[in-house]
Protein backbone atom coordinates (compact mmCIF):
# COMPACT_ATOMS: atom_id res chain seq x y z
CA UNK A 1 0.00 0.00 0.00
CA UNK A 2 1.39 3.39 -0.99
CA UNK A 3 1.67 6.28 1.45
CA UNK A 4 -1.26 7.99 -0.28
CA UNK A 5 -3.37 4.83 -0.10
CA UNK A 6 -2.53 4.40 3.58
CA UNK A 7 -3.58 7.98 4.28
CA UNK A 8 -6.92 7.47 2.53
CA UNK A 9 -7.45 4.14 4.29
CA UNK A 10 -7.02 5.87 7.65
CA UNK A 11 -9.54 8.57 6.69
CA UNK A 12 -11.99 5.95 5.45
CA UNK A 13 -11.65 3.95 8.65
CA UNK A 14 -12.16 7.08 10.75
CA UNK A 15 -15.38 7.94 8.92
CA UNK A 16 -16.57 4.33 9.08
CA UNK A 17 -16.21 4.03 12.87
CA UNK A 18 -17.72 7.45 13.48
CA UNK A 19 -20.63 6.55 11.24
CA UNK A 20 -21.19 3.30 13.12
CA UNK A 21 -21.69 5.28 16.33
CA UNK A 22 -24.28 7.46 14.64
CA UNK A 23 -26.11 4.37 13.35
CA UNK A 24 -26.24 2.85 16.84
CA UNK A 25 -27.79 6.02 18.24
CA UNK A 26 -30.28 6.58 15.43
CA UNK A 27 -33.15 4.63 17.11
CA UNK A 28 -32.92 6.79 20.24
CA UNK A 29 -34.86 9.97 20.97
CA UNK A 30 -33.28 13.05 22.50
CA UNK A 31 -34.98 12.10 25.77
CA UNK A 32 -33.52 8.56 25.63
CA UNK A 33 -30.06 10.04 25.17
CA UNK A 34 -30.22 12.23 28.29
CA UNK A 35 -31.12 9.66 30.97
CA UNK A 36 -28.57 8.35 33.47
CA UNK A 37 -30.14 5.41 35.30
CA UNK A 38 -27.26 4.77 37.73
CA UNK A 39 -23.75 6.20 38.31
CA UNK A 40 -22.07 3.50 36.20
CA UNK A 41 -24.28 4.37 33.21
CA UNK A 42 -23.60 7.43 31.08
CA UNK A 43 -26.20 9.15 28.88
CA UNK A 44 -25.94 8.26 25.20
CA UNK A 45 -25.29 11.84 24.18
CA UNK A 46 -22.43 12.00 26.72
CA UNK A 47 -20.79 8.99 25.04
CA UNK A 48 -21.22 10.63 21.63
CA UNK A 49 -19.63 13.84 22.88
CA UNK A 50 -16.87 12.19 24.93
CA UNK A 51 -15.43 10.19 22.04
CA UNK A 52 -15.48 13.39 20.00
CA UNK A 53 -13.69 15.24 22.80
CA UNK A 54 -11.07 12.47 22.70
CA UNK A 55 -10.26 13.24 19.05
CA UNK A 56 -10.23 16.98 19.76
CA UNK A 57 -7.68 16.57 22.54
CA UNK A 58 -5.45 13.74 21.39
CA UNK A 59 -5.49 14.41 17.64
CA UNK A 60 -6.50 17.98 16.77
CA UNK A 61 -4.98 19.81 19.73
CA UNK A 62 -1.90 17.58 19.69
CA UNK A 63 -1.17 18.38 16.05
CA UNK A 64 -2.28 22.02 15.85
CA UNK A 65 -0.37 24.84 17.51
CA UNK A 66 -2.72 27.20 19.32
CA UNK A 67 -5.71 24.97 18.65
CA UNK A 68 -9.05 26.61 19.43
CA UNK A 69 -11.71 24.13 20.66
CA UNK A 70 -15.14 23.98 19.09
CA UNK A 71 -16.49 24.87 22.54
CA UNK A 72 -14.13 25.09 25.51
CA UNK A 73 -16.96 24.27 27.94
CA UNK A 74 -17.24 20.87 26.28
CA UNK A 75 -13.75 20.06 27.47
CA UNK A 76 -15.03 20.29 31.03
CA UNK A 77 -18.34 18.50 30.42
CA UNK A 78 -16.98 15.58 28.39
CA UNK A 79 -13.59 14.80 29.92
CA UNK A 80 -14.02 11.39 31.54
CA UNK A 81 -11.10 10.82 33.92
CA UNK A 82 -8.00 12.50 32.47
CA UNK A 83 -6.69 14.47 35.43
CA UNK A 84 -3.81 15.95 33.45
CA UNK A 85 -6.24 17.55 30.99
CA UNK A 86 -8.02 19.65 33.57
CA UNK A 87 -11.19 19.55 35.70
CA UNK A 88 -14.20 17.53 34.64
CA UNK A 89 -17.87 17.23 35.47
CA UNK A 90 -18.70 14.49 38.05
CA UNK A 91 -19.46 11.12 36.49
CA UNK A 92 -22.47 10.36 38.67
CA UNK A 93 -24.14 13.63 37.58
CA UNK A 94 -23.84 13.34 33.80
CA UNK A 95 -27.60 12.91 33.53
CA UNK A 96 -28.02 16.47 34.82
CA UNK A 97 -26.53 17.89 31.63
CA UNK A 98 -29.66 18.76 29.66
CA UNK A 99 -27.69 21.21 27.50
CA UNK A 100 -26.04 20.79 25.09
CA UNK A 101 -28.80 18.57 23.77
CA UNK A 102 -28.56 15.60 21.45
CA UNK A 103 -28.82 17.83 18.38
CA UNK A 104 -26.00 20.11 19.54
CA UNK A 105 -23.85 17.06 20.28
CA UNK A 106 -24.46 15.95 16.72
CA UNK A 107 -23.30 19.37 15.49
CA UNK A 108 -20.18 18.99 17.65
CA UNK A 109 -19.43 15.58 16.15
CA UNK A 110 -19.79 16.85 12.59
CA UNK A 111 -17.54 19.84 13.18
CA UNK A 112 -14.80 17.76 14.75
CA UNK A 113 -15.08 15.22 11.93
CA UNK A 114 -14.57 17.99 9.38
CA UNK A 115 -11.50 19.20 11.25
CA UNK A 116 -10.00 15.74 11.70
CA UNK A 117 -10.45 14.74 8.07
CA UNK A 118 -8.99 18.05 6.90
CA UNK A 119 -6.01 17.55 9.21
CA UNK A 120 -5.41 13.98 8.04
CA UNK A 121 -5.46 15.14 4.43
CA UNK A 122 -3.14 18.10 4.99
CA UNK A 123 -0.44 16.76 7.34
CA UNK A 124 2.96 15.99 5.85
CA UNK A 125 3.75 12.30 5.72
CA UNK A 126 6.17 12.34 8.65
CA UNK A 127 3.72 14.19 10.93
CA UNK A 128 0.87 11.90 9.93
CA UNK A 129 3.01 8.87 10.75
CA UNK A 130 3.55 10.24 14.27
CA UNK A 131 -0.15 11.02 14.73
CA UNK A 132 -1.46 7.75 13.31
CA UNK A 133 -1.20 5.89 16.63
CA UNK A 134 -3.40 8.47 18.37
CA UNK A 135 -6.02 8.26 15.61
CA UNK A 136 -6.08 4.45 15.72
CA UNK A 137 -6.32 4.48 19.53
CA UNK A 138 -9.20 6.94 19.26
CA UNK A 139 -11.04 4.59 16.90
CA UNK A 140 -10.65 1.62 19.24
CA UNK A 141 -11.69 3.89 22.11
CA UNK A 142 -14.83 4.80 20.17
CA UNK A 143 -15.56 1.12 19.57
CA UNK A 144 -15.37 0.55 23.31
CA UNK A 145 -17.95 3.28 23.76
CA UNK A 146 -20.16 1.79 21.06
CA UNK A 147 -20.51 -1.26 23.27
CA UNK A 148 -21.03 0.96 26.31
CA UNK A 149 -23.78 2.87 24.50
CA UNK A 150 -25.72 -0.38 24.04
CA UNK A 151 -25.01 -1.64 27.55
CA UNK A 152 -26.07 1.67 29.06
CA UNK A 153 -29.24 2.21 27.04
CA UNK A 154 -30.28 -1.35 27.86
CA UNK A 155 -30.10 -0.42 31.55
CA UNK A 156 -31.85 2.90 30.96
CA UNK A 157 -34.78 1.31 29.13
CA UNK A 158 -35.05 -1.50 31.69
CA UNK A 159 -35.82 1.09 34.38
CA UNK A 160 -38.89 2.23 32.44
CA UNK A 161 -41.95 0.30 33.73
CA UNK A 162 -43.09 -0.11 30.11
CA UNK A 163 -39.77 -1.88 29.35
CA UNK A 164 -39.48 -0.47 25.83
CA UNK A 165 -37.08 -2.07 23.37
CA UNK A 166 -34.07 -0.28 21.93
CA UNK A 167 -35.03 -1.31 18.39
CA UNK A 168 -37.36 -4.29 17.88
CA UNK A 169 -35.88 -6.99 15.63
CA UNK A 170 -32.96 -4.78 14.60
CA UNK A 171 -30.80 -4.65 17.72
CA UNK A 172 -27.41 -6.36 17.87
CA UNK A 173 -27.87 -10.07 18.29
CA UNK A 174 -29.35 -10.77 21.70
CA UNK A 175 -31.79 -13.44 20.49
CA UNK A 176 -30.99 -17.18 20.91
CA UNK A 177 -27.48 -17.78 19.65
CA UNK A 178 -26.98 -21.45 20.53
CA UNK A 179 -28.49 -24.73 19.46
CA UNK A 180 -29.91 -26.86 22.26
CA UNK A 181 -27.12 -26.85 24.81
CA UNK A 182 -25.21 -30.11 25.03
CA UNK A 183 -23.58 -31.26 28.29
CA UNK A 184 -20.37 -29.44 29.15
CA UNK A 185 -17.24 -31.17 27.92
CA UNK A 186 -13.99 -30.57 29.76
CA UNK A 187 -10.96 -29.79 27.63
CA UNK A 188 -7.65 -30.65 29.30
CA UNK A 189 -4.40 -28.71 29.09
CA UNK A 190 -1.03 -29.85 30.36
CA UNK A 191 0.03 -26.46 31.70
CA UNK A 192 3.71 -25.70 32.18
CA UNK A 193 5.54 -22.50 31.26
CA UNK A 194 3.54 -20.59 28.65
CA UNK A 195 3.75 -17.15 27.07
CA UNK A 196 0.97 -14.65 27.68
CA UNK A 197 0.28 -11.24 26.21
CA UNK A 198 0.18 -9.51 22.85
CA UNK A 199 2.96 -9.65 20.33
CA UNK A 200 3.19 -8.30 16.82
CA UNK A 201 2.50 -5.00 15.09
CA UNK A 202 -1.31 -5.15 15.16
CA UNK A 203 -3.14 -2.74 17.43
CA UNK A 204 -3.48 -3.63 21.09
CA UNK A 205 -4.08 -1.67 24.29
CA UNK A 206 -1.10 -1.12 26.55
CA UNK A 207 -2.48 -3.40 29.27
CA UNK A 208 -2.20 -6.42 26.92
CA UNK A 209 1.59 -6.43 27.23
CA UNK A 210 4.44 -6.91 27.70
CA UNK A 211 4.42 -10.53 26.60
CA UNK A 212 5.78 -12.65 29.43
CA UNK A 213 6.01 -16.18 30.77
CA UNK A 214 3.57 -17.72 33.26
CA UNK A 215 3.60 -21.14 34.91
CA UNK A 216 0.29 -23.01 34.79
CA UNK A 217 -0.65 -26.17 36.63
CA UNK A 218 -2.50 -28.77 34.51
CA UNK A 219 -6.11 -27.60 34.15
CA UNK A 220 -9.43 -28.23 32.45
CA UNK A 221 -11.74 -25.64 30.94
CA UNK A 222 -15.37 -25.96 29.87
CA UNK A 223 -16.02 -26.11 26.16
CA UNK A 224 -19.00 -23.71 26.44
CA UNK A 225 -20.55 -21.06 28.63
CA UNK A 226 -22.96 -21.72 31.49
CA UNK A 227 -26.53 -21.54 30.18
CA UNK A 228 -29.60 -19.78 31.53
CA UNK A 229 -31.18 -23.17 32.17
CA UNK A 230 -28.25 -24.19 34.34
CA UNK A 231 -28.52 -20.87 36.15
CA UNK A 232 -32.20 -21.56 36.84
CA UNK A 233 -31.12 -24.82 38.52
CA UNK A 234 -28.74 -22.78 40.69
CA UNK A 235 -31.61 -20.49 41.68
CA UNK A 236 -33.95 -23.42 42.35
CA UNK A 237 -31.33 -25.02 44.60
CA UNK A 238 -31.20 -21.89 46.76
CA UNK A 239 -28.03 -20.54 45.21
CA UNK A 240 -28.84 -16.96 46.20
CA UNK A 241 -29.74 -17.98 49.77
CA UNK A 242 -26.79 -20.20 50.72
CA UNK A 243 -24.04 -18.14 52.33
CA UNK A 244 -21.53 -21.00 52.09
CA UNK A 245 -21.35 -20.54 48.30
CA UNK A 246 -20.43 -16.88 48.42
CA UNK A 247 -17.35 -14.80 49.09
CA UNK A 248 -17.90 -12.67 52.18
CA UNK A 249 -18.03 -9.39 50.27
CA UNK A 250 -20.32 -10.96 47.69
CA UNK A 251 -22.72 -12.21 50.38
CA UNK A 252 -22.87 -8.74 51.91
CA UNK A 253 -23.52 -7.21 48.45
CA UNK A 254 -26.26 -9.75 47.72
CA UNK A 255 -28.05 -9.03 50.98
CA UNK A 256 -27.69 -5.26 50.78
CA UNK A 257 -29.11 -5.12 47.24
CA UNK A 258 -31.58 -8.03 47.58
CA UNK A 259 -30.09 -9.85 44.59
CA UNK A 260 -32.08 -12.95 43.58
CA UNK A 261 -31.23 -13.52 39.91
CA UNK A 262 -29.11 -12.13 37.05
CA UNK A 263 -29.71 -8.51 36.12
CA UNK A 264 -32.72 -8.04 33.82
CA UNK A 265 -34.37 -11.26 35.05
CA UNK A 266 -37.65 -11.12 36.96
CA UNK A 267 -40.21 -13.72 38.02
CA UNK A 268 -43.86 -13.21 37.21
CA UNK A 269 -46.76 -15.67 37.36
CA UNK A 270 -44.47 -18.69 37.48
CA UNK A 271 -42.31 -17.58 34.53
CA UNK A 272 -38.79 -16.12 34.49
CA UNK A 273 -38.58 -13.16 32.13
CA UNK A 274 -35.57 -11.28 30.74
CA UNK A 275 -35.36 -7.73 29.44
CA UNK A 276 -33.24 -7.51 26.26
CA UNK A 277 -32.48 -4.78 23.74
CA UNK A 278 -35.15 -6.35 21.54
CA UNK A 279 -37.77 -6.29 24.28
CA UNK A 280 -38.83 -8.40 27.25
CA UNK A 281 -39.41 -12.14 26.75
CA UNK A 282 -39.19 -15.41 28.71
CA UNK A 283 -35.71 -16.60 29.64
CA UNK A 284 -34.37 -18.97 26.95
CA UNK A 285 -32.72 -21.85 28.77
CA UNK A 286 -30.24 -22.76 26.02
CA UNK A 287 -28.82 -19.23 25.80
CA UNK A 288 -25.80 -18.24 27.90
CA UNK A 289 -26.58 -16.82 31.33
CA UNK A 290 -25.87 -13.09 30.95
CA UNK A 291 -25.43 -10.03 33.13
CA UNK A 292 -24.00 -11.71 36.22
CA UNK A 293 -21.42 -10.17 38.54
CA UNK A 294 -18.10 -11.70 39.48
CA UNK A 295 -19.61 -12.45 42.88
CA UNK A 296 -22.41 -14.41 41.21
CA UNK A 297 -20.02 -16.14 38.80
CA UNK A 298 -17.80 -17.28 41.67
CA UNK A 299 -20.78 -18.51 43.72
CA UNK A 300 -22.15 -20.44 40.76
CA UNK A 301 -18.76 -22.06 40.13
CA UNK A 302 -18.57 -23.13 43.79
CA UNK A 303 -22.09 -24.57 43.60
CA UNK A 304 -21.17 -26.46 40.40
CA UNK A 305 -18.08 -28.00 42.01
CA UNK A 306 -15.77 -26.01 39.78
CA UNK A 307 -13.99 -22.65 39.71
CA UNK A 308 -13.42 -19.72 37.40
CA UNK A 309 -10.38 -19.93 35.12
CA UNK A 310 -7.52 -17.51 35.53
CA UNK A 311 -7.08 -15.08 32.68
CA UNK A 312 -3.82 -16.87 31.81
CA UNK A 313 -5.57 -20.24 31.56
CA UNK A 314 -8.23 -18.68 29.33
CA UNK A 315 -5.69 -17.10 26.98
CA UNK A 316 -3.49 -20.19 26.83
CA UNK A 317 -6.51 -22.41 26.14
CA UNK A 318 -7.47 -20.21 23.20
CA UNK A 319 -3.93 -20.17 21.84
CA UNK A 320 -3.53 -23.95 22.25
CA UNK A 321 -6.93 -24.92 20.84
CA UNK A 322 -6.88 -27.59 18.14
CA UNK A 323 -9.60 -29.19 16.00
CA UNK A 324 -10.00 -32.02 18.52
CA UNK A 325 -10.37 -29.66 21.49
CA UNK A 326 -12.89 -27.05 20.43
CA UNK A 327 -13.87 -24.22 22.76
CA UNK A 328 -17.20 -22.64 21.84
CA UNK A 329 -18.63 -19.21 22.60
CA UNK A 330 -15.23 -17.57 23.06
CA UNK A 331 -16.35 -14.40 21.27
CA UNK A 332 -19.61 -12.73 20.43
CA UNK A 333 -21.70 -14.12 23.29
CA UNK A 334 -20.61 -12.84 26.72
CA UNK A 335 -17.54 -11.41 28.33
CA UNK A 336 -16.28 -14.17 30.61
CA UNK A 337 -15.27 -13.55 34.21
CA UNK A 338 -11.92 -14.90 35.34
CA UNK A 339 -10.50 -15.28 38.82
CA UNK A 340 -7.67 -12.86 38.00
CA UNK A 341 -7.33 -9.43 39.53
CA UNK A 342 -6.67 -6.69 37.01
CA UNK A 343 -2.99 -5.87 37.47
CA UNK A 344 -0.13 -4.82 35.25
CA UNK A 345 1.95 -7.50 33.61
CA UNK A 346 5.64 -7.74 34.61
CA UNK A 347 7.39 -4.77 33.06
CA UNK A 348 4.18 -2.84 32.37
CA UNK A 349 4.48 0.94 32.57
CA UNK A 350 1.95 3.53 31.36
CA UNK A 351 3.11 5.65 28.47
CA UNK A 352 4.09 9.24 29.17
CA UNK A 353 1.53 12.01 29.08
CA UNK A 354 -2.24 12.14 29.45
CA UNK A 355 -2.77 9.08 27.26
CA UNK A 356 -1.01 7.05 29.95
CA UNK A 357 -4.14 7.47 32.10
CA UNK A 358 -6.09 5.23 29.70
CA UNK A 359 -5.69 1.88 31.51
CA UNK A 360 -2.99 1.74 34.16
CA UNK A 361 -4.68 3.95 36.75
CA UNK A 362 -7.54 1.43 37.11
CA UNK A 363 -5.39 -1.48 38.24
CA UNK A 364 -7.04 -1.75 41.66
CA UNK A 365 -10.24 -3.48 42.85
CA UNK A 366 -11.10 -4.77 39.37
CA UNK A 367 -11.42 -8.31 37.97
CA UNK A 368 -10.48 -9.37 34.44
CA UNK A 369 -12.95 -10.61 31.82
CA UNK A 370 -11.93 -12.23 28.55
CA UNK A 371 -13.58 -12.82 25.17
CA UNK A 372 -16.25 -10.44 23.89
CA UNK A 373 -20.02 -10.07 23.87
CA UNK A 374 -22.88 -9.88 21.40
CA UNK A 375 -22.61 -6.09 21.74
CA UNK A 376 -18.87 -5.89 20.96
CA UNK A 377 -18.19 -4.23 17.58
CA UNK A 378 -16.96 -6.50 14.81
CA UNK A 379 -13.18 -6.70 14.68
CA UNK A 380 -12.80 -5.59 18.29
CA UNK A 381 -12.09 -9.03 19.79
CA UNK A 382 -8.81 -10.88 20.28
CA UNK A 383 -7.35 -13.48 22.62
CA UNK A 384 -5.19 -11.00 24.54
CA UNK A 385 -7.92 -8.38 25.14
CA UNK A 386 -8.31 -7.64 28.88
CA UNK A 387 -11.66 -6.18 29.88
CA UNK A 388 -12.14 -5.29 33.55
CA UNK A 389 -14.90 -4.35 35.98
CA UNK A 390 -15.44 -4.29 39.76
CA UNK A 391 -16.74 -7.54 41.25
CA UNK A 392 -20.31 -6.26 41.72
CA UNK A 393 -20.72 -5.03 38.13
CA UNK A 394 -23.29 -6.84 36.01
CA UNK A 395 -24.76 -4.33 33.58
CA UNK A 396 -22.05 -5.43 31.14
CA UNK A 397 -22.96 -8.51 29.10
CA UNK A 398 -20.92 -10.85 31.28
CA UNK A 399 -21.19 -14.62 31.61
CA UNK A 400 -19.39 -17.67 33.00
CA UNK A 401 -17.02 -20.33 31.66
CA UNK A 402 -16.00 -22.88 34.28
CA UNK A 403 -12.66 -24.53 34.95
CA UNK A 404 -11.64 -27.81 36.61
CA UNK A 405 -15.15 -29.20 37.02
CA UNK A 406 -14.15 -32.85 36.56
CA UNK A 407 -11.18 -32.47 38.88
CA UNK A 408 -13.41 -30.98 41.56
CA UNK A 409 -15.97 -33.76 41.11
CA UNK A 410 -13.28 -36.44 41.54
CA UNK A 411 -11.97 -34.72 44.67
CA UNK A 412 -15.41 -35.04 46.26
UniProtKB/TrEMBL annotation:
A single GO BP: ergothioneine biosynthetic process
DinB-like domain: residues covered: 16-149
Cited InterPro entries: CTDL_fold, DinB-like, DinB/YfiT-like, EgtB, Sulfatase_Mod_Factor_Kinase, SUMF_dom, SUMF_sf
Keyword Iron: yes
Residue ranges annotated for the Sulfatase-modifying factor enzyme-like domain, each copy included: 185-322
Known pathway: Amino-acid biosynthesis; ergothioneine biosynthesis
Keywords, sorted A to Z: Iron, Oxidoreductase
Keyword Cell membrane annotated: no
Transmembrane segments: none
Protein name: Unannotated protein
Species in which this protein is naturally found: freshwater metagenome
Amino acid sequence: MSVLEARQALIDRYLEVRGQTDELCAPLSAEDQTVQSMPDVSPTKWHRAHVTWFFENFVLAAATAGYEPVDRDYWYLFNSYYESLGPRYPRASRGHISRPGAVEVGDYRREVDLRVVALLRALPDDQLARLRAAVVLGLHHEQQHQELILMDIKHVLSRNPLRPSYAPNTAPNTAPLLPAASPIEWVEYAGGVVEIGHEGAEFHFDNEGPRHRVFLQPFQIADRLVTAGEWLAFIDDGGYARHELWLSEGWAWLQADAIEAPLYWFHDDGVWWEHTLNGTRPVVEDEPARHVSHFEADAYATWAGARLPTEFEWEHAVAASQPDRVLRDLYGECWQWTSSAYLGYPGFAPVAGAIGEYNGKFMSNQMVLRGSSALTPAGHSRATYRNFFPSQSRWAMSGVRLADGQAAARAH
